[in-house]
Each structure stands twice: as structure tokens, then as C-alpha cells.
Amino acid sequence: SVVPDAHAACQDATVLQELLQAGFHRELLVKAELGGGAEDAAGCSVAARIHLPPGIYVDPYELASLQRQNLTKALLVPDVVDVEAPEYLATELLVLLYMEPDPRCSGCFRASLPVHGRYHRPGEDTEEALVVLKSPEVLACCCDSRLSTECWAPAEVEASCSGNPKGPCQWFSVTHRPVQEESILQVPVGLRQHNPAVCVLTLLATGLCSALILAAVCKHGHFA
Known about the structure:
By secondary structure, the chain is α+β, with helices and mostly antiparallel strands. It has helices at residues 6-10, 60-68, 195-220; strands spanning 14-20, 25-33, 45-52, 56-57, 74-77, 93-101, 108-117, 128-134, 137-142, 152-155, 170-174, 177-178, 182-188. A hairpin with a 4-residue loop joins β1 and β2.
């Protein structure tokens, strides 16, 4: 008898990520189609494990607001994020983004998350910095299902199974192929040769504003 190639069947699982909108403030959309493992994943929680490079961050306060409104669910590692740090002083972030079933497709899941570009150093001859975002890993957490070991492998994830009150469950990494290996975020940057002009204009604007404030205080202020 011929044994079917289980690994080949697992290749039907796919993941797609898209960066929507433009500029510094974007929407990260992640879609996953589990393909051959869809039946095994019935009743499981599905999530995308995303590694954000230093040039991209998630605002934890914005995320907390969205989670209170049940618009998204995600876990940040670390959970303390310096939203003011420039790219060259920031560190990587790990995001576990819980996904919801897509009713338009059997075995499909999707989720979105607002992300933001950080300020970069001025460029030499370009007004854009490129930030590379690798394709996410798809994970499944199941308490009531027995997953096929040919398509799924245990994964080390320090997070609870979304919405499951039975306590800790095993996360599995889904064998999949990305539609794209990476996405590119284009972040506007200044040009290094503009630094002297920017410094002079900033000093002039600061001096003018300070003089206007001082004049207003002298004219309208009450001194003992």
C-alpha cells in the first residue's frame, strides 16, 4: 500500500500579512488558512506570533483600549513599551495576536492590530527608511482536540489559551507556507544635509516664541 505524504498535505496551510494605510500609523492585517489541519483545529484557539523589529511598535495604551472594546486581543512581550524612543534606541517586540474565525472561509482565521513606525536617523540621499517585517508564525492552542503530529509541533508559548477556562493547554506550531516571506514598511525620514537649516529655524522659532511670551507676561502680568 502507498502511504500518503502527510507533510505535503500540511503545505496547504498559508499565512498572509498586510500593512494597510500609509505613513507612520498603519494597520497590520494577518490572515491564516489552516488547510489540511482545519478539521483537527476545530474548537482550538489560533494566534499569530509576530516579531516586530525596532522600527515598529505597538502602543500598549491603544491596545488596552481596543481590548476593552473587544476589538482585538493580543499579548505584548515586553508589556512595557517606550513609545517615544527612536528606532536606534528601541528593541524588538514579540506580539501574540489572537485570531478569530473568518466566516467567509472554512478553516480561515484573521486579526488586525494597529502598529506605528518609529523615527529613524536622517538619511544621506533618501527620504525613506525601510523596515522589514518577517512573516508571522501561526500557533494553535487546543484543550479538547488531538492534533495530527505530522502537521503540528509543540511550541513553547508563555500565554494562556484564549477564552478557555480549563487552565494551561498546549500550544502547537502550524506547518505553513507564507504568501510573502516579509513585508516592507516605508518610514519617512529627513535628509542629513538639512540638519543645519532645521537647527537654525528651530532656534529662531524658539527665540521668537519665548520673546512673545515674555512680552505678554510683562504687559499683562501682575507683579508684587
